[in-house]
Amino acid sequence: MEVAIRCHGMVATKNALFQFPEITLGILPGIGGCIVPYRKWPGGAVLFNEMICLGKPMKAKEALDIGMVSKIADDYYELIREAVDAVKNLQGKVKRIPEGKVDIPEITVPDEPMSGKQPLSKEAVAIVVKTVKAGAAADSLSEALEIGYQGFGEIACTDSAKEGISAFLEKRNPEFKK
Fold first, then answer.
1. Which residues pair with 17 in a beta bridge?
2. Of 7, 30, 72, 164, which shows the fewest CB atoms inside 10 Å?
3. Are 41 and 6 in contact (CB under 8 A)?
4. Among 52, 64, 53, CA closest to 16
5. In 13-29, which positions are buried (b, 16+ CB within 10 angstroms) versus exposed (e)?
6. CATH, domain range 2-97+109-169
7. Is 29 left (phi over 0), alpha (psi -120 to 50) or beta?
8. d(C-alpha 111, C-alpha 169), whole Å
9. How many CB atoms lie within 10 A of CB 108?
10. Rounded Cα distance, 4 and 99, in Å
11. If DSSP codes are grouped into helix, strand and coil, which group holds residue 11?
12. How many CB atoms lie within 10 A of CB 53?
């Protein structure tokens, strides 16, 4: 997902799902996922809050509605045709990721954060919220991305990250203490 959001454009199949599942591992999207979506598609901020903080997936139709994808295809073959057409139409029309501060709605997190039926680490969610808010308040994209990288460094050193990643590797549900 983080690589896709850095592309000049996206098309999707009608059954596509987009997700930032990192919070279920006690970490955050570390290569721009906490920063780029808010700057490229500010109308999707509420959805991005839920995706990044709670691991909620976004359906293709929601991605189309906020402008994250430009076309929805019925099948794989139509997807390839739409993608080729999109690339052909890019010449001279490449949009840059906007600079400056981004207004985002208040991020509300339940007292007991969950991703579906999986409890999340309160510690990790708090770091994610802090990172998203600081990144949105940054004056430049470069500064915002640096805040995202620092947030990843902070969260990677927590017990939550250790437990989440260990649980994933051991094919078990994490048991977050914080």
1. 59
2. 7
3. no
4. 64
5. eeebebebebbbbbbbb
6. 3.90.226.10
7. beta
8. 27
9. 10
10. 19
11. strand
12. 25
Amino acid identity of 128?
Answer: V
Per-residue pLDDT of the chain (178 residues; tens, 9 = 90+): 889 998 889 999 999 999 999 999 999 998 899 999 999 999 999 999 999 999 999 999 999 999 999 999 999 999 999 999 999 988 878 888 889 999 999 998 889 999 999 999 999 999 999 999 999 999 999 999 999 999 999 999 999 999 999 999 999 999 998 8
**Cα distances (angstroms) measured from residue 9 to each of 67, 68, 114, 121, 152:** 10, 8, 31, 33, 26
Please give the structure tokens belonging to residue 26: 């006690």
Tokens, residue 48: 């991005």
Give the single-character DSSP code of 24.
G
Sorted by sequence, the CB contacts under 8 Å of residue 160 that are 6+ apart come out as: 26, 27, 121, 123, 124, 176, 178
